[in-house]
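Page 42, continued from yesterday. The earlier attempt failed because a stray header line got pasted into the input along with the sequence. Redoing it now with the clean sequence only.
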Amino acid sequence: MEGRKIIVLFDDPLKGFTTIKKLQDSGFQTKSFKLSTLIVEKIDKQTQAVILSFKKPITGLIKVIDKLKHHTKRAIFIAITPKENFSLWEKSGVDYIAETPSKAIEIINTQKKPTLHIPIHSKHTTEEILKQYKKPIKILLFYFDNFDDELIEKMTETIKGIYNNLKRADGFIIIEGTGFIVIPYNQNESKGIEILMKKIESTIQQAGFLQHLTISNIVNYNPQSDSLEGILSKKKKDIEIAINIETKTTPIEELLKLPFIVNSAIEVLDGQTLAKLYYDKEFRRIINPFIDIKSARLIAQLKGKVDEKDIKEAKDRFTEVLKEAGKYFDENRRGDFFKTLNSNIQLFSLPEVQSNIIMLINEEAPFKKIINEIQKDAAITTKILKFANSAFFGLKREVKSIEKAAIMLGTEEILGISLSISYLNFFNSTHTKKLYKYSIACLAISKFIEEEAEINTGATLASVIHSIGDMFYAQYHPEEYKKLIDYVNENNMPYEFAELRFLPAASVNVGYELAVLWNLPKRITKTIKYHLYPAVVSRIDSALHLIHASSIIAKAMGYFYGSYSIDNLNYHTYNLFLNRFKLNLLTLFEKQGKIIKQKIDEMLYVLS
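This time it went through. Structure tokens are written below.
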């Protein structure tokens, strides 16, 4: 079923996501929409099925079904709904009614599969066609593993799409058991040939068939002296050699380029090993951005006491742990996950008011326009006024005007408050409630640190949103997330290291992708991606280091999953606040813990 396109329309994001996950697990390529965001003209006309995940036909849906039927021509329409609602769909225009996604998949699979109306040639016939050229030519070669009837059947729409998008003068030959070749008409335009090659590769990748592709290359073919079989054999051998070399020499180097993997490995190393690594020049550069307070103390204690043998043992142990972390890192799985996330972004789109606020902030629109947008949502207006009048600002007079409150707070504070409301509506599973409290705890702590350091970084938005990736997994992958939490609790294992075992991609990277898709400001997306290890990107960005500090303090106070202490604070964060703002974060945590807890309770009351 790979590459077969399905459209999913839904009213409930959670049920919609469940349907999409089932379809994708069965090999279908999906795109999803809320009814309000669907643009019929942009739907692929080759769509095989349209799934409608609604309890009953809502207003406007029957007209949409009719438009889609005229647009797609060949798609079948299936409603997924409880059995007691079957009768409501009988005159809606759908072709089938199913009780579950599994039943819908069964219906799709029984439909007649598309046929390929393009000739398939043997290698011998292909050779005869190529020999008709009098001069050497460049051909684009696409060689697949097991290019049999089953794969051809799966790739039908993709192959037809490639064929139909070529110029009339370009040659196109499907070779039995091999793949296909393209013979560009303009043989002298090297740049144009390269662009065509990349375009076809991109089409194959988007359709989900890249894992079957063994060779894609521009080949110089001389009809007078070359044989097709000889070129295929040589290219395949070259590819196999290159793959073997890469497998033997690059894994550790590649892992060292991934901050999340390095951080995860460092988290499970004992302090002594990490401290010894610091005294190797090469590894000091790698681990320095990740050093926490505990490691810094041990590094100081071991000064002048570490020999070559100690360093070698430490390097061997670090490499062993890094490989263990890398064992669960699958780039293909990660890539497929992000592809799914991007193709189904409508499921995770923000409410209209929040989306408009983001757009206006990014456009640097007049403040009056932003306020007008805020006033469209009574819940956001109420929360902003409540927040502005809370003890965190210590105002002598009550602020009653949303204009004054908004001006006093600033645009990013407003956006942070509005997104905290979305959190409550958007994420409502068992684990997301704890994660929401953690986010609000971070907000309260960051505000308290700002007050003590006498700075203003506008931390509300970053505090609220930085754990969005964890929220996503807890809501939309509840089974995997529960396994992760149980594993962390039972094995006293760092949360970030355990993520690699159970989740397809790091939560910070998922959060980053969502933030980019929501068009959040760049400094916020950077904070989401790097708050676990801020020194990797900057040692002076006070806003980024503030979120890291508030996160560690909240975790040390038990607001997050796993076992943490204040000693997990990044050493560069500690130094930044001590040297620039004269604030000792360790002393703050140890001596003002009760006040911090009180501030958190107040913030939870204000934003609950």
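Notes: Residues 236-250 have pLDDT under 50 and may be disordered.
Reminder to self: strip header lines before submitting.
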